[in-house]
Each structure stands twice: as C-alpha cells, then as structure tokens.
Amino acid sequence: MRIVELTKDTKDNILENLLKRSPNNYGEYEAVVSDILANVKANKDAAVFEYTLKFDKAAINADNILVTQDEIEEAYSVVEPALIDVIRKALVNIEDYHRKQKQYSWFDSTPQGTILGQKVTPLEWVGVYVPGGKAVYPSSVLMNVVPAVVAGVDHIIMTTPPNKEGKVNPVTLVAAKEAGVKEIYKVGGAQAIAALAYGTESIPKVDKIVGPGNIFVALAKKSVYGHVSIDSIAGPSEILVLADETANPRYVAADLLSQAEHDELASSILVTTSRELAEKVSVEVENFVQVLSRKEIIEKSLNNYGYILVAKDMEEAIAVANEIASEHLEIMTKDPYAVMTKIRNAGAIFLGEYSSEPLGDYFAGPNHILPTNGTAKFFSPLSVDDFIKKSSIISYSREALEPIHKDIEQFAKSEQLTAHANSIAVRFETL
C-alpha cells in the first residue's frame, strides 16, 4: 500500500478521490434505470417477468414468483446445520441489541388541561432487497429484517434475484425464514425496486425499501425516494484504522483487507502516528494479498482507494478520521476509549485489537448497514428507528387555550394568515 505523509493537500486529494465512488457519479446509468421504473409502473408483472428473463435468464411468472414452503424446506435440507446454528446465534445477538433501541409513545398532561405527546407507530409495509449474483450475504438479511421485526412492522416482504433455474440461494432463504420473513419474491435489480415502490399484480406496494444492491439498485432507490421511503443510497464498503505505535501491524493489515475484498471500489485507509507501523503494515498487506482468494479484486481496490497516511500526532489523525467519516472505524491505540470520545463521524466504531470489523458484520449485534461515502457526518446505522414513524399529539381544553388565544392570533396575523387567526378567534367570539 502507498504510504503518504498527511498534509492538507494530500487530505483534500484523498477526499476528492473517495467521493468519485458515490452512486451520484454514475449518471450514465440513470436513463436505463428510469426506463425500467417507468415500464414496471405501467406494465407491472409483465415488465417484471420480461426483465427477469432478460437479466437473470429465469422464466418467472405469476405462478412461481413467490417462494413456496417446499422451496424453503429444500433450502434447509441443503444448508449445513452448523451454518444454520451460527445464523441462529447471531440472530439472538442482533435481536438483543435492537430491542434496546425500541421507542414508545409518551404523553404529558398539566392541571390546566393540556395534553402533549408523541405516538410511535410501526410502518405497515416494508420491502427488503437482497442481492443475488456471485455473492451471498445472509448476514445482511438478518441486519435488514431484525430491526423491522423488533419495530413491529406488520408486513415484511423480500425480493431477491433467482438463478437461471428460477431458484433462490438456499442460504438466503434460510436466513430470511429464521429472521421472520413470510413472503419472498424472485425478482432482482431495478425492476425489484420498481415493483416494491409501485406494486404489481403479484408484489404488493410497500412504504419503505431497505437493503443493499448494485449501481442499478442504488439509482432505482434514489429515483423512487419520496414515493416511498428508503434506508440510504449505499456506496462501496470502506474501513479506516486509526492506530499508534502500539498497534499490531499484522492485525491492522488483515483488517484493512477485510474490506478491500468486497469490490474494486472499496476503500481501505490506515491513519497512524507511527512511520514504523506504516511500513510494517505495508509489508504485511503485500504478504496477505499473495495468499487471499480475492487477490485481483483486493489489488485493484488498494491501488485505487488504499492509503496509509502518516500524521504528525494523534490530534491530526483524529481530525482526518472525522473528515473522512468512514463506514467502519477501528481504533487501535494505547487508549482507544479516550480516542473514541473525540470521534464525531463514523458509521460503526470498533475499539481495541480484538474488535475487528467482521465481528460487527456477522455476530456482535449492532447493525452493519452503515452510512458510506462521508455520509456518517449526518446519517446513522440502520436501526429500529428506521421502521417507525412518529405523530405529535396535541390536546387543549377551552380553559387552557383562553389565556393564550390572543398571542396565537397575533402571531398568525404577523404572517398575514388571517384564516389561521380566525380559526382561534372563532372559539372566543362570545367573550
């Protein structure tokens, strides 16, 4: 990996380079996505079946688009029992963590006759998109579904692309069943997002769409936002390791590569105060790359978006970490807890040398659907909050309103909204 002295210019260049990975910079695909969305909106099932045959080579129709109970049972028969056991263990941790996020309605009243409050209501329909293709991510199934279940969503449906035989990956089916999904539809890509957003004869319209996907899925979610809600427009994976001279270079290198193997656009960055550590990590990275299975992808990722930045002190290192606002931030310093208190911007923070990023991906419990591309400055991980909505509650008696009615009328008149003022005044015409 390239080693760079951290300066204002190098920081600005790196930030500019990282932003190139944003889905917002792939406008050449927007026309294709727009056509798919319009076709599905107009022609519903017919368009979905057409695109599934074209892109996935699968002959899907109204009779076989919904995964059957027999298909789920078949999936359980072929997935290793040991993996099912791991999924169930992870599920317990994820559920326990997300239950602590649950919010409840509240009401406050006064003797003067006012009641103010907030009513918390789960969303009614949620669609979860699960990618297919070469990679299978049962962990993402759990992370997207569990907070919706904990929130109390009434209907959770899933869409995922089938293979050319019209089958869904068995591990995906097992994870979905374990998490509590009752309806799984065999459709992927932008056409799946359109079906969830607009509804078809077979697939019901939802209120919110969550889940990762390729650039076509990301752009489709961006396009339907406002018609339905979405979780986020996810960019490529990224990790930033913040380390001092006490860090284990072998651990640091292994963790950087855990994200580089995702895809060629993934970003892996070490920010350290130790030039010696930087050089040792660079050597360890080269050694690991030679034996890892996704060598070609890793090399392209590191060449394009891999950096080792040497800062003059920890204050400068923390400042650049906050500026980059990485999806995953590992802190490997003498006192990681003290450093953590100075971090403002990160999707998930991992403290200490035994809290490596895959722990969060699979097992610890916090959600691994995280803000990317610097959006950790204003976005949070997927949570139970994403599957609820809040309504304000306001109740005033006549006795509570009377002492303040002229104040409200004056405020309304200052905005030249006389009908607003009249709405209050009419209640006190007899005074």
Q: Label the structural class.
A: alpha/beta
Instruction: Estimate the helix proportion, in percent.
Output: 40-55%
Strand order of the largest sheet: 1-11-10-9-12-13
Classified in CATH, the superfamily of the largest domain is Nitrogenase molybdenum iron protein domain
Enumerate how many helices there are, as a single number.
Answer: 18
Strand content: 15-25%
Q: In the CATH classification, which architecture of the largest domain applies?
A: 3-Layer(aba) Sandwich
Describe this structure in a few short sentences.
The active site is at residues 327-328. This protein has 431 residues and is of the alpha/beta class.
How is this structure best described in words?
Its EC number is 1.1.1.23. One of its GO terms (molecular function) is zinc ion binding. Pathway: Amino-acid biosynthesis; L-histidine biosynthesis; L-histidine from 5-phospho-alpha-D-ribose 1-diphosphate: step 9/9. It is an enzyme of class 1 (oxidoreductase). This protein is an alpha/beta fold and about 425 residues long. It has 3 domains: about 5-20 and about 235-365, Nitrogenase molybdenum iron protein domain (Rossmann fold, 3-Layer(aba) Sandwich); about 25-230, Rossmann fold (3-Layer(aba) Sandwich), CATH 3.40.50.1980; about 395-430, no CATH class. Helix content is about 45%, strand content about 15%. It has helices at about 10-20, 30-45, 45-55, 70-80, 80-100, 140-150, 170-180, 190-200, 215-225, 250-260, 275-290, 295-305, 315-325, 335-340, 355-360, 400, 405-415, 420-425; strands at about 5, 105-110, 115-120, 125-130, 155-160, 185, 210, 230, 240-245, 265-270, 305-310, 330, 350, 390-395. Helix 7 links the parallel strand 5 and strand 6 (about 185). It is globular. The mean pLDDT is about 95.
